[in-house]
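Let's practice the habit of predicting before peeking. Look at the sequence and jot down your guess about where helices and strands might fall. Then scroll down.
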Amino acid sequence: MSFSELLVNFTGKNVEEFTITGFDHLSHQKLLGFLIFITYFLVLLGSGTNICIIVTDRRLHTPMYLLICNLAVVDIMFTTSTSTTMISVLLAEVKTISYYSCISRMYIYHLGDITECMALSLMALDRTIAISTPLRYHSILTNPRLFLLITATWLIGLGVMGVLTAQADSLPYCQPIIRYVFCDYPAMVRAACVNPEPYWMLPAILGLWVIGAQFIFILLSYVNLIYTVLRLPNNESRVQVFNTCICHIIVVSSYFGPKLVSGLLTRIGVRLNLTERNALLIMATLLPSLINPTVYCLKTKEIRKRLVQILSRKRTAVMK
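Done guessing? Here is the structure:
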């Protein structure tokens, strides 16, 4: 389909559909699509396993495991909003997406991004209370209080994304082309027939308020944890505390790492081409959601133990 033909399919304020062109220059699209499909499958398998184990085992209905369950739900939502689009483009060769499907996936994608960040903050709060005040942990962070905190994070995410989506929906779209690999706010703004610069202010303010504040909180929580660890009387206790935090450190690094790299490159004046920008975007979307369930399945004793029990039962049943 030519560029002139693509420009035909729009109606005044909003186009009826967009065409995803972010992969057009790639020569091995099927291979990339297969890798994204496998990654998406592993995310669903890992996060779904964590959710099933935690929900079905009442002994795991404690704040730490409920937070892991919440993170798994967010990971599935976050990854689904983008992976389905990329798989459709790369494997099914369906490059078009309706306007309302695109803007709804944009909403879900950024909602997942925001709630993932706040979920990591709640997990940092959980570890801080558990290590700093272990004797009062169960009286401070009860399940009802935790449910209120989790609900608050979702409500904040829904509200923030309502504002951002309303702004994107108000823009006039005169070309039905998404030059990136899925629908997100920057892609939608750049597809509109407006100067995009004024429309970066709102997401910058919201991002600084939501994601920036959570990042600072997580850093401060680890400063407090380091101070607490240094006051412990022996190395064995320090190692034990570190082991309780290592999972969270890994998932926080996988989430903020690509964002910090992107921000740092921008600050020092490095201009990424479209391919490099899309690669970083895919990594920032899929990497955390793949690492999170893997880390918590392998490093969390109770989940690992429960998983081994389930696999052992199935193996015994097959042998019989």
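How did you do? The mean pLDDT is 86.
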